[in-house]
Amino acid sequence: MLNINEKAPNFSGVQAYFNGEVKEVDLSYYKGSWLVLFFYPRDFTFVCPTELRGFAKHEVDFKDLNCQILAASTDSTWSHQNWFQRDLPEVKYPVISDTNHSLARSYEVLNENEGLAERGLFIINPEGLIKYILVSAGSVGRSVTETLRVLKALQSGDLCPLDWETGEKTLGKA
Fold first, then answer.
1. pTM of structure
2. pLDDT digit string (tens) for 119-130?
3. Per the residue annotation, which of 14, 16, 27, 48 is the catalytic one?
4. CA distance 82 to 21
């Protein structure tokens, strides 16, 4: 089982669709910055594009926090290319093609029966430690603004109460 404050499962040489090209991606590329890695079930679905667009809309907000966005599904790079060029041109961050299911399996979000990734989200700190894990039903999209709020809270280094926002009082040092 994956645990908070443990090393994120490593990956290297995985193919990702990124700005019209297929490139290899390694976890090591993100060392020194925060990373939001999120898995989604399938291309050409109903809920998934709402999340992909939401993260694209806030990509600058994440970059301002020294955080990169990386998405993944078990679909092929060809599927990603066709879908993103046709329906999601605003998505500029890399989207991994996990056709052999190794990444979804290592992050423990693979639905073995259906051969797809469940809706999982991981915030990884600059040292490669998992700081936040969220796995939800495929029928419910995640909140990008909540992901940003959690990232800011983690970066504060403080104990942050329910619904804490930047500028509000914390409960002291963690």
1. 0.94
2. 999 999 999 999
3. 48
4. 12
